[in-house]
């Protein structure tokens, strides 16, 4: 159970003469993306160039009450966004979609990702007398587009000019008065995909959205590609290029839902393969194997298949507590007890193997080992379906500073002693690409290897951690 904060989730829909309520479709789509962000949500609806929106803090039912959905009314284009979970206080101004008025009417934007040149761009805009309402990356991008649109012949040209100034990782979904637009960063670090619901065109962070809404997955948006949807259909423009691609491998390890396809790879299959590799790399005699819900389950199944050790349910998660539950001002150990419980009938008197997706600070792993011993497990062997997490990520919505990463300071043996396990094994860094061997792109593994795909030398700790929201 990783302590890593989630990514955001983005969604956009362009209705093609269908009797559907696009605000309601967007609401349902955000439910499918709830795992990517549980601190806030928002929807913007475009009706004839006039945009109405509502966004608030909380899980989707809290953030988007029925009366507000009805107020959004009918429309032709809509955007939706779920905000990641953060341990810090949240300002309403940082929630998305961001809706603004500028020289050509209204523009609405959603983003998943983080800009490594945020401060540089903000300083430049400040010198031009820009007035900011938030401290997020999305507003920076909106300003760049608005400024470019003054002389650009079209919104497509303005977006192209603006994104060429961006450095970092991003998946953008936006709407102008008459168009739905999506852009993926040139390395493909953040995922974005294209689909259909009936005849309506949809952009989303993950393909599970299309399945949930009874639609079809068409394809992933290519790195550096801009998708434009208007009354004439879908238009594709390759507006950015890069010598290499680097999809975040943590999409397979933790971020994405298991029923999603990310760049030609089933997330569930990638996690199961990680478990199979773990069984080969770190075998141990045991009676049962199980995963930490939710992201360790598929890996535990893979471990069971490869090792022949019986798969069981050893931990039960409170399904009514989201990841954002950790934001409540309570003792962290108390919160973990509420969130997870050991199944005594399964583990008592048994040698158990427990599979987790990653270890960051180590506190959750320590708590899990204690839970299992208290429930009567005679041995507890921890296996981790990813390599040692040693480096902060500057390319996601939020991250953990290096000083908080246990693997940055301790060896695997020292971590094992700290969490109290009988043994501990991590997936090897060398074998990590094998879990997503069918992927169309290269992979970013900087959190494990320290090899960042983009220059992060100007992304200071102050830049990254002093802002409440990205």
Please summarize what this structure is.
This protein has 17 helices and 24 strands.
Structure in words:
By secondary structure, the chain is of the alpha+beta class. Helix content is 29%, strand content 26%. The chain folds into 2 domains: 9-246, Glutamine Phosphoribosylpyrophosphate, subunit 1, domain 1 (4-Layer Sandwich); 264-444, 3-Layer(aba) Sandwich (Rossmann fold), CATH 3.40.50. The chain has 17 helices and 24 strands. A hairpin with a 2-residue loop joins strand 12 and strand 13 (233-238). Helix 4 crosses helix 5, helix 5 (137-149) crosses helix 6 and helix 9 (267-281) crosses helix 10. The two termini are 23 Å apart.
Mean pLDDT: 91
Query: How many E strands?
Result: 24
Radius of gyration over all CA atoms, rounded: 22 Å
Helix content: 25-40%
Task: Give the CATH superfamily of the largest domain.
Answer: Aminohydrolase, N-terminal nucleophile (Ntn) domain
Structural class: alpha+beta
CATH topology of the largest domain: Glutamine Phosphoribosylpyrophosphate, subunit 1, domain 1
Tell the overall outline: globular
The first-to-last residue Cα distance is 23 Å
Strand order of the largest sheet: 3-2-4-1-10-9-11
CATH domain class of the largest domain: Alpha Beta
Sheet having the most strands: 7 strands, antiparallel
Number of helices: 17
Sequence stretches where pLDDT stays below 50 over 5 or more residues: 460-470
Estimated share of beta-strand residues:
25-35%
CATH architecture annotation of the largest domain:
4-Layer Sandwich
| Count of discrete domains | 2
